[in-house]
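User: What would this chain look like folded?
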Amino acid sequence: MTETPLKLFNSLTRQIETFTPVHLGEARVYTCGPTVYNYPHIGNMRAYVFADILGRTLSWKGYDLTHIINITDVGHLTDDGDAGEDKMEKMAAEKAQSIWDIAKHYTEAYWADVKALNIRQPAKWSVATDYIDEMIDFAKGIADKHCYELESGLYFDVSTIEDYGKLARAVTEEGEGRIETVEGKRNAADFAIWRKTPVGGTRQMEWDSPWGKGAPGWHLECSVMGGKLLGFPFDIHTGGIDHREIHHPNEIAQNQAHCCTGGLGEAENSGARIWMHNNFLVERSGKMSKSAGEFLRLQLLIDKGYHPLAYRMMCLQAHYRSELEFSWEGLGAALTRLKRIVMQVDRLKEDLAGDPSHQKFVPMREKFAAAISDDLNTSVALVALEEALAVKKVDGGVKRAVVEEMDRVLGLDLFGLTREALRIRPKTAEITEAEIEAEILRRKDAKVEKDYATSDAIRASLAAKGVEVMDGDPLGWEWKL
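Assistant: Here's the prediction, encoded as structure tokens.
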């Protein structure tokens, strides 16, 4: 285990805290996963890159990691504030498909993005519909003291627990925000933990319960899966910052009720010792929204010729708690930075790993450890990696060991990634890579023969087909589409 203590920002206390595991030598982490009603956009995927870095860091620190990511296939409404239609039911109706087929298709699409971004597999993907019986039992256990029944379902009374909304600071500081108005609710912030199927209505996903046929609320699902698979309290709960305002405060309220705990002055009473949230990815054109048609999903980046790990690099260049602005220019710069690193690593691939504690690398390793241990400061950690690669007159095997150690945390797959893999042909390109390489070779021959007219003609011909010949490129990439 590295000596520098790991310090993390706890959204619940709004403080940087030293990580101290609930169970000695273990780290138990729950991440709010996707609702599989559509393809994830790249803003969604930032949350899983962040959670992956956290998990990799805990493993690097020597903890036995158990990481759970859930798949929401029921219960998530079109408004996070407990209003609107079930997202899954709505998409199934629009597509005129089985809701189970919708869930399967978009779960697999999400998993493909996870793989493309080199995000490690969790200990378990917990699928919400696999835990319906446990959800009903959980609700039954808290219903008498904390819930009441209305015509539309079973509702949680937030006045029955202490410090409701402390995570969001929403109820006391910002008003009650996006909360559903339901006739009969005792408090505006009360939320449904079981939704009855409307009289005369039908759902593709519904189950019998003591409160009538229906489906669980989104908030209930995470409380049940987190508690069952990790045990209360567990170490860390992660999610996007949008979850901090409604979903996670409601989840915490359920956890308090279930565990019969007091107020949130003790963070463990929330169900997790630390709550962590990544900030938004900001895109100014409005194409981040899934209602925008060709929204920004990972496949669109690939179609435009950008390797998925360029997006991971883009995420690493910013702190997870800061907003990250997306632009094609920024993604291109991240790809160029990744190319530079990959070309340097290429020279080490034939070397056998040596001892990373070599004196020349002490400053870089200390800088890297300090940065990652300081609330996952990946931007500074990247600089430490580049500084290690720039060290001269040192055994290649030693340098390889240092870079491998750092990449275990950063997850850029530097020893698996190749220069060729980073050159992705845009979907709109009308010329093949083989044709480009042949023309580049013919141009080189022409230049050797000092036939500059032919050389210039080949360059112009390639430019007309969208290929930029990069003479004098320090990367040695030669061309790009």
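The longest helix spans residues 42-60. If you want, I can go into more detail on any region.
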